[in-house]
Amino acid sequence: MTEQAQSVATAFVSARRAARALADYPGAPPQDLASAYRIQDAAIRLDGRTVAGWKVGRIWPPLDGQLGSNRLSGPVFADEVVFAGNGEVPAMPVFAGGFAAGEAELLLHVAPGWNGAVPTDDAGTRAIIDEVRLGIEIASSPYARINADGPLVTVSDFGNNHGVVMGPALDGWRTLDLCAIVVRTEVDGETVGEATAATMLDGPYGAVRFLLGNLARAVRPVAGAVGFDRRDHRGSPGRPRPDRDRQLRQLRRAILHNNPGAAALGARL
């Protein structure tokens, strides 16, 4: 761990705790994925909260070729997970003066007892999944240019994650083509985004394989599974709901964010 990485991690953790925007990147930006993950790892240790799971984001061409990866990952903390049933509209906070967006997700859960072997195909990946849910990722950072400055900066601040809304479980998911499901987001009755996962690399199961491999190389804990972002969507700011202790004790999740170029949103904490 370099002194520079520790300094950047400390600045991001402090800004998040104080809900304080950062006008500039707090140090020299990382120059490769290894350096970016070192900052993220240091920030996770400094933060000290329980990691409930992980999100995954896409790295777009031409940077995917330059960096040697077409995806990235970041932690989802247990106290930033909200469970919402059908018809519920939970309020979620974002960073005033920073970056914020709401993004539709498919959330995949890796079953307890996984032996550590990363599957090589969709059939093998389905075999280690025990649940799929619909949900929303709250992508927010104190640094407004977190996505504009590229994937290395995104990785360094928790992958630009600031919470997840856990929606209903998807019944019969094993017989469904997850890439064919149309997801639509409406704001005040107006459709602001509609898409499927069909064009997103090798789909939700491929994202699971990336995540498990990435966590294994970094010797990180696997706290569950992943979700899959369908398209950029706007969300609403607010405060998280407190009624989730029972569910969080059972939570072993990770969130996949497959499009880091989400729509910006101004909001107050």
Summarize the entry for a quick read.
The protein is an alpha+beta fold. It has helices at 3-18, 33-47, 63-67, 122-127, 151-156, 203-217, 245-249, and strands spanning 51-58, 71-77, 81-83, 99-110, 129-141, 164-169, 183-187, 190-195, 227-233. The strands form three sheets. Strands 3-6-5-4-9 form a five-stranded mixed sheet.
Q: Any guess at the CATH architecture?
A: Alpha-Beta Complex
Overall mean pLDDT = 82
Distance between the termini: 33 Å
Class based on secondary structure composition and strand pairing: alpha+beta
Shape: globular
Which stretches are low in confidence, meaning pLDDT under 50 for 5 or more residues running?
Answer: 224-269
CATH superfamily: Fumarylacetoacetase-like, C-terminal domain
The level 1 CATH classification is Alpha Beta
SSE order: HHEHEEEHEHEEEHEH
What multimeric state do the chains show?
Answer: single chain
Per CATH, what is the topology?
Fumarylacetoacetate hydrolase, domain 2
Radius of gyration: 17 Å
- Widest sheet, order of strands: 3-6-5-4-9
What's the helix count? 7
The amount of helix comes to: 25-40%
What is the number of domains?
1
How much beta, percentage-wise?
Answer: 15-25%
How would you characterize the largest beta sheet? 5 strands, mixed
Give the number of DSSP strands: 9
